[in-house]
Amino acid sequence: MKEHLIGRHSPLNTGQEEPSHHPGPMQRRQSETAAIARGLGAVAVAAAVLASNREAQGAAPKLLVFLHVALKQRALQTEFGAALSGIEVTAVGRIADFDRALATGQDAVLTLPVVLDARGLSPGLRGHRAGAPDEVYALVGADSPPDPARVKTVGALDLLGRNDTTAFVHRVVGGVPAVERVTKIEDLLALLQMQRADAILLALRLVPEVKTMTRLNLQHRELGSRIGLPAASSVGPGGGRVLAAIDKLPQGLSRTVGVDEWR
Q1: In a domain, 37, yes or no
Q2: Do 203 and 246 reside in the same domain of the chain?
Q3: Which residues constitute the domain of residue 100?
Q4: What's the rounded Cα separation, in Å, for the pair 207 and 205?
Q5: In Å, what is the CA distance from 21 to each residue of 15, 18, 34, 77, 111?
Q6: What is the pLDDT of residues 177-233, one digit of tens each?
Q7: What is the DSSP string of the chain?
Q8: How many domains does the chain have?
Q9: 8 A C-beta contact, residue 17 and residue 72
Q10: Is the pTM of this model over 0.70?
Q11: Cα-flanking dihedrals φ and ψ of residue 9, to 5°?
């Protein structure tokens, strides 16, 4: 085969009346900057108070899941919710939805390490399969195994937004094809069916299941790059509790996201 507070200084009281005049452009810009800074400071304080209140009130910790599997996102959210009792789970399939939900406040996120890295987050719990924390990807095409050196357009799941997803695909494929981004696995198949892509990029573990979803004669070629399996990062006060719960996920659900153990 894709986030500051500025103090204010009051003028000294000299006992003299200041001359009346209209503020100049520089003064207006300074005033606007101070107002914006005060606003950002208020938002930061409010967010901190909200997080503290949620923890003090014993509110359920929140987990944000951004993973692409054969299940619909609603079904994936339901399965995680059932397995993680007492944790509020939100599953999304678009990077923009992930960023919005992350900004509203979460305790932990579960996604691919490449996404964590792009958002400046560190994994606190990594998924492993067959003892490895990463996996092979493949280019999948119709009728014959795609040649990475010859494909002109590759379909890929939008993990990181336009530019970063394109860079990700180029790194994994080892070339510079045009990239068609989609948000669902079934939409990748549509790209092949409509001949909008010469090949699609997938984790190798997904290829057998994807073959059952279409009448196309799918053929694949393994690529040399290995990409990290799903990992979890603590981003809020309840993150430790969420990661401990993920570590004890039922094997069936862990395998659904490509993992057979968490470390």
Answers
A1: no
A2: no
A3: 62-127+230-262
A4: 6
A5: 18, 9, 20, 60, 56
A6: 999 999 999 999 999 999 999 999 999 999 999 999 999 999 999 999 999 999 999
A7: ---------PPP--SSPPPP----HHHHHHHHHHHHHHHHHHHHHHHHHHHHHHHHTTPPPEEEEE---SS-HHHHHHHHHHHSTT-EEEEESSHHHHHHHHHH--SEEEE-HHHHHHTT---SEEEEBTTBSEEEEEEEEESS---TTT-SEEEEE-SS-HHHHHHHHHHHHTS--EEEEESSHHHHHHHHHTTS-SEEEEEGGGHHHHHTT-SS-EEEEEEEEEEEPPEEEE-STTHHHHHHHHTT--HHHHHHTT-SEE-
A8: 2
A9: no
A10: yes
A11: -115, 125
* Residue 13 CA to its chain's centroid (Å): 52
The pair of structure tokens assigned to 114 is: 């490449």
Residue type (1 letter), 55: E
Shared domain check, 217 and 160? yes
CA 187, CA 126: separation in Å to the nearest integer? 28
Query: Which residue, chain included where needed, has tokens 């923890």?
Result: 55
Exposure b/e, 12-38, CB count within 10 A at least 16 = b: eeeeeeeeeeeeeeeeeeeeeeeeeee
